[in-house]
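Reminder to self: tokens first, then the designed residues, so the page reads top to bottom the way the pipeline ran.
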């Protein structure tokens, strides 16, 4: 007979703390189609996971609680509106068990930065609680729950480089020979709300002042296979960049400063305001990050490489 367990948990449940690392994402290409009837835009995007990580630790508890440290502490609500809490509840409901855990988040990914930090934390929570509770779901089941939490959450379960379609929730990996790309990530003061960026793009398009949509991801996918950063640089693109620049005109100075410092290309990441710059190699990235920091055009300039794995037990 099985040992009596005080919390009635699955025998596969973890007894110690479960620590999960999850990356930030950028979009190598973000094509935004028309607004759909459900309020989302049809996307054609290539996601790319980079080496800036949040860390979520899950421990056994009698209730569901969340604490945090790092980026956004004191600003980010830790109540039921937090994507971490919503992810834990969604997994518990799916598995038909109580959502009991003590969760702690260590954040490096800025809030509302266009790096999908909140989505990353939701993905980390699904992977951590799945192990803590011994629910043992397949990655595809986790990705299906992830899609109910946000459009970017399924990608952050998978990581790497992947094509995103639908509202971004339909993810398929891009198979390429292993290459590391070296980035400089310019983190801005303050954030941009994602819905606001999409609304601004719709406004620009209605007025006829938006740039032509960047369209298909085919050129980008071909560029990835060539493994030449100059070729990849020429294929980067983001339809939301015009919206982010319209909401935050000073981002144009950040992009200019990165290119003046020798970056191969700079784009706004997702809905912004973070800007990312592709560089030739790790040393080039270090040098450009230093110049950007000195130019005073961002709150923080960091280096990162990609692709990296999605949410994983650390
Ligand atoms: O999916 P998620 O909750 O992260 O999306 C946040 C908001 O971003 C949506 O409510 C919507 O306003 C906007 N969005 C969109 N089209 C997408 C993804 C997000 O308009 N494909």
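Designed residues (314 positions):
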């Amino acid at each position: 007979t099985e040992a009596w367990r005080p919390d009635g948990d699955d025998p596969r449940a973890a007894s110690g703390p479960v620590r999960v690392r999850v990356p930030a994402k950028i979009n190598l290409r973000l094509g935004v189609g028309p607004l759909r009837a459900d309020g989302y835009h049809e996307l054609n995007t290539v996601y790319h996971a980079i080496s800036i990580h949040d860390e979520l630790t899950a421990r056994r508890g009698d209730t569901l609680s969340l604490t945090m440290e790092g980026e956004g502490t004191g600003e980010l609500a830790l109540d039921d509106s937090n994507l971490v809490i919503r992810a834990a509840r969604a997994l518990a409901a799916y598995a038909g068990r109580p959502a009991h855990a003590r969760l702690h988040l260590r954040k490096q990914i800025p809030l509302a930065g266009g790096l999908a930090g909140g989505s990353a934390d939701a993905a980390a929570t699904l992977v951590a609680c799945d192990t803590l509770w011994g629910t043992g779901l397949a990655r595809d089941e986790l990705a299906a729950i992830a899609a109910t939490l946000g459009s970017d959450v399924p990608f952050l379960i998978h990581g790497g480089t992947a094509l995103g379609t639908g509202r971004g929730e339909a993810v398929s990996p891009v198979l390429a020979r292993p290459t590391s790309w070296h980035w400089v990530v310019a983190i801005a003061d303050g954030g941009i709300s994602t819905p606001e960026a999409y609304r601004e793009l719709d406004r620009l398009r209605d007025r006829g002042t938006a740039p032509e949509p960047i369209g298909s991801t085919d050129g980008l996918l071909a560029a990835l296979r060539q493994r030449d950063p100059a070729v990849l640089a020429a294929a980067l693109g983001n339809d939301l960049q015009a919206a982010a620049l319209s909401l935050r005109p000073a981002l144009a100075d950040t992009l200019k400063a990165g290119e003046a410092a020798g970056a191969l290309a700079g784009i706004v990441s997702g809905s912004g305001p973070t800007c990312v710059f592709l560089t030739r190699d790790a040393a080039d990235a270090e040098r450009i990050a230093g110049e950007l920091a000195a130019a005073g055009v961002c709150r923080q300039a960091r280096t990162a490489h990609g692709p990296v794995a999605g949410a994983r037990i650390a």
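The chain has two domains: 18-174, 181-306.
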